[in-house]
Amino acid sequence: MHAYVLIGLQDCDEQQVLEELNGYEEVEEAHILFGEWDLIAKLDIESPEAAGTFVMEHIRKLPDVKLTSTLIVAR
Length: 75
Known about the structure:
Blueprint: E1 2-9, H1 14-22, E2 27-32, E3 39-44, H2 48-59, E4 65-72
Antiparallel strand pairs: 1-3, 1-4, 2-3
């Protein structure tokens, strides 16, 4: 299953956070964005529950992350 995570950061080095995200096996790809959100990560993960757990235990715990929004792919 796939999910996209939009990530808002505090003032920091986006490239450093991007590199951290790319270090996770569950992150299929990640990119720096222009606009309201700073980063987007595409997850390849087993279930919606696993996506929620991954976001809470890994992405939200990164020190520069202030906000996330997880979008579960329907089809």
